[in-house]
Amino acid sequence: MYINVLKVFAPSAIAFFIGILLTPVLTNFLYKHKLWKKKAGKVAPDGRETPIFNELHKDKEIGTPRMGGVVIWASALLTIGTIWILSIVFSANPFFQKLNFLSRGQTWLPLLTLLIGAMVGLVDDILQVKGEGDKMSGLSFGKRVFVVGLLGLVGALWFYYPLEVSSIRIPFMQSPLELGIFFIPFFIFVMLSLFSSGIIDGLDGLAGGLMAIIFAAYAGIAYFQNQIDLAAFCTMLVGGILAFLWFNIPPARFYMSETGILGLTTALTVVAFLTNAVVVLLLIAFPLLITSLSVIIQLASKKLRHGKKVFKVAPLHHHFEAIGWPSYKVVMRYWIIGIIMAIIGMVIALIGQ
Q: What are the boundaries of each domain within the chain?
């Protein structure tokens, strides 16, 4: 039993300290090359300017580098790689064999999606900082949707054919809900939905804190399902996120940006399906859900009500800023809601099996 506890929690601590050690090197590189937006501003999903957001953040985006998410996936990659190499070098030692959590059935796919998503995000970040900050800088929304959708298709096919998964479990129902071939578009839909929630990355510490909470909840679910390797993968990401968060609390040394949020949301999709706990994702990732919904509601209102808005500005966390909440109050209250909803979701996932 103790070896499983060590296997699950050691990667978190290792990733955290690796991330802390990586940060000075990354920070020096980002500031030396001035890898931040050259012009502050944001464009809404409907292509219009967002003057309220731009006024609130006009002094924050210039001078603070992007690509801080590199700390998360780089520390995760170094952690899982180091433990795997140790298991090979000391192959005769059962201790290192048991600590290794790189496995085909549980961690290959989420690790692959994490890295692919992170690389796509990194390309987008590089294009943004090399541009002039206008709406044409970076990958277009359509291109990012295409890449995420393609990644979702690959993941869905992997689940449907090699893993022979075609159903989802509904808590407290005796039999799983059989989707058949429709499992594939459902998987893609979930991944795209989580991708849309990436707009949560807009305040210092917000995305990092919420993602750490979400992956910690899924680590607990995986552990109680005896998916020890997957639980270790999740706690490893928590450790990397906490290392990033150490330097992202106000005033942020850098922003997570696309290379972090895109990698994490795509990996989270796979984790949710591997634990067969995708339904409770609505609860565990509730702050992400309301963030996406606030944008949808805002766009629908402007379209159907002749330009009238429901919120001063969307996403929702910026609305709270616009009505006078300090950014740290918004962040901490989101963290509190995230923790409560993650606990509720985790409990339902475990007792509803």
A: 2-281
